[in-house]
Design brief:
With about 300 residues, the chain is α/β, with parallel strands linked by helices. Helices cover about 50% and strands about 15% of the residues. The two termini are about 25 Å apart. The chain is globular, with a radius of gyration of 19 Å.
Amino acid sequence: MFTLETKQKVCQIGPWKVGGQPGDNPPLLISSMFHKGDRLLESRKEGTFNRAKAADYIKRQEELSEQTGIPAVTAMVANTANEMKYYIDFFTSISDKPFAIDMWVQEPRIASVRYVAELGLIDRLIYNSITPWDKDIPAQVDQLKELGVKHVVVQVYDDDDPSPQGRVKSFDKMMGTIGEDTFESILVDTSVMNLPATSFSAVANKMIKEKYGLPAGLASSNGTFMWKAAREMWGSDGFSAMNTAAQAVSAMFWSDLLFYGPQVTAPKVFPAVVSAVLMLSTLVYHESGRLPSNPNHPLYKFFGEFAEKLKK
């Protein structure tokens, strides 16, 4: 179940290894900042926001990442390239870690990448993302290659087939245009549409990993934060429980990366994902006798003596 026959590609993004056999490397956690409704925002047009609080969130995520061994990236959301410049300048002034841009429209995404390249920071950028809905994927790929982009997210979905197979068909089609060796890292996002359909995305992750060996993951937060009725039924505590449970379950099933939603939730999401990653490591051990290859894995950080007993 958790041992895939296809050789798995492990991508090196900054200090982190992403991908590989299930259980080897913790999933890359990608949080959003400056998204719609983010209370940090003051004015998108002027690029103003609560800088002190934003810095606190970023530093807290980095502390949790260091403590747990789970890699984490901040994805900044903007509507225009000019707005994104404010956020890139801010992030790179306080952190030396990789970062992601998150923009729906292709043209401002490319313009933002061009700005990152001008700053000489292209090695740190995760481009999010090439999507099935982009107007001109070949031209986009050519521009990204020209700018030296190394790490890209490819989002997949088939409007006519919402099954896991539909997501794989979408990826097949997109890879025919993009090419498997065009970028140093190709991370696949299997498009969560609602909470129960998160399972379809997880199964699609497994299918894509089996077919291509590439890191695959999902936006677990799409399934939880779009379920508005949950907060109405159970309040903030109930919603938080549902959200962290869904994030943890997603981490257990063939997910090399998780878009976990607003960065403010990091103190709740990280412990949930740690729990899942620890249990996955022992499920894999039970199935195959294999322990994580990553020496920074939470199993070794928190249960080193137990891991040594399993080795023997």
